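seq:
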Amino acid sequence: MGRRRDRESHQLPHAPLLPLPPVAELLGAQVSRISYDPDPSPDSDIALPRSEFDAAVARLDEIGYPITRSPDEAWAHFKGWRINCESTGYALTQLVDAPPAL
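struct:
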């Protein structure tokens, strides 16, 4: 079965830090007694620097990935989603001693 390709699939991805649904990640935080903000402001700062995001966008552009949003618009969406689980994701990786991504 092929991957569905439509306008939505061509927009820059804004996946969470870990390949876990945010609900599972927050449940993991509750079980592990990790403190987190259950309702963060989408305008809050995130740990991932904008320069790393821009480098990832540049790599996608280099390989011909169809990009339909400007980097500034995509950053706003990415940051708004990432704030929901970034600190929890980092804390959970410290608990499991996860290796860095390559």
